[in-house]
Specification:
The complex is a heterodimer of chains A (about 100) and B (about 200). Chain A is mainly beta and about 100 residues long. In chain A, about 10% of the residues lie in helices and about 35% in strands. In chain A, strands 3-4-5-6 form a four-stranded antiparallel sheet, with no helix packed on it. In chain A, strand 1 and strand 2 (about 10-15) form a beta hairpin. Chain A is globular. In chain B, about 20% of the residues lie in helices and about 30% in strands. Classes of the chains: A mainly beta (about 100), B alpha+beta (about 200). The complex binds zinc ion (ZN).
Chain lengths: ~100, ~200
């Protein structure tokens, strides 16, 4: 079981949360202008990352807020937690962003 | 506001008040039905909103996650439980919902905010006594030890996989669990089972 730190409530068991898939997927400005392939790409296609992965979680049995988690999909290590609207810390590779 | 003559606790059919109470038990259970409960939403970053709520309700909006403001004794006024950065639960004694909703309606017209009477949605189960934390720990993933769960604090979590709002109201300890009414019977029976070992069996 994962222990996930909610940005508001602190660390809680995974059973209190629901998973929301890959984070930072931006809805296209003008869906009408897209081809079917581009629209399907937005709707369905996700990176199947092994390693650091930015994803959304919601604290459904707690404060019911959505937030972002950067998690290593291979080790389940939680690298970072940040609120909606905040820019992700680090460079997305699991490091601290330092060169 | 529900007509009082129609109002029934979700545990009414269990006739809890006719059950014998063991004085030797180190955990006790009690239902506190019909509490006034109002969910308030609004932007706590706006000081006029915070000030208006405070003057209408009589206590400040808690902004610290999982904290509670208001009187220790519920009979002395309204408590506010933090549920989220823009969401609170106002709790008052039985029968205050109409007056409180009218006050809030007057207050909130100036703001982008909402108040909803949810008094019927949950009942309150009190779990108290020296072994209360130990018994609750069987179905609760929160650390209920006083060093991490202080008196006067609240938290939303689960009890035996059912959603619950925990509020620690007494040092003894005493926990109040706000349970959705459709889960009340299940949680009560689960609690009876979980606390059974702390209730000595009467001799003879
Ligand atoms: Zn939370």
């Amino acid at each position: 079981m994962l222990s996930i730190p909610c940005p508001w409530c602190g660390p809680r068991d995974e059973t209190e949360y629901s998973y929301g898939g890959e984070a930072h997927i931006v809805r296209p400005e003008d869906p009408q202008a897209l081809s079917d392939r581009e629209w399907a790409d937005y709707l369905f296609m996700r990176a199947n990352t092994k390693g650091a992965h930015r994803e959304r979680w919601v604290h459904s049995h707690g404060c019911r807020r959505w937030f972002n988690v950067e998690r290593n999909t291979a080790t389940n290590e939680i690298i970072a937690v940040y609120k909606m609207g905040e820019s992700p810390p680090g460079d997305g590779t699991g490091g601290d962003g330092a060169p | 506001m529900v007509d009082p003559y129609l109002r029934q606790s979700p545990l009414a059919h269990m006739h809890l008040n006719t059950r014998p109470v063991s004085t030797d038990a180190t955990v006790w259970l009690r239902e506190e039905p019909f509490r006034t409960q109002i969910v308030l939403r609004g932007n706590a970053d706006k000081k006029p909103f915070r000030d208006s709520v405070e003057s209408a309700v009589g206590c400040a909006l808690p902004r610290e996650p999982n904290s509670v403001t208001g009187p220790t004794d519920l009979n002395d006024g309204t408590r506010i439980l933090w549920l989220g950065p823009d969401e609170w639960l106002l709790v008052a004694p039985v029968g205050n919902e109409q007056q409180l909703m009218e006050t809030l309606a007057d207050t909130l017209t100036k703001f982008h905010a909402a108040a909803v009477d949810v008094s019927e949605s949950r009942t309150v189960l009190s779990v108290g006594g020296p072994s209360a934390s130990e018994a609750l720990a069987k179905g609760c993933s929160l650390d209920l030890h006083p060093r991490s769960f202080a008196t006067g604090q609240c938290a939303q979590s689960e009890i035996a996989r059912a959603h619950a709002i925990y509020h620690k109201v007494g040092e003894d300890p005493v926990f109040e669990l706000y349970i959705h009414r459709s889960y009340a019977e299940y949680v009560w029976m689960w609690l009876e089972d979980a606390t059974g070992e702390y209730v000595p069996v009467a001799e003879g």
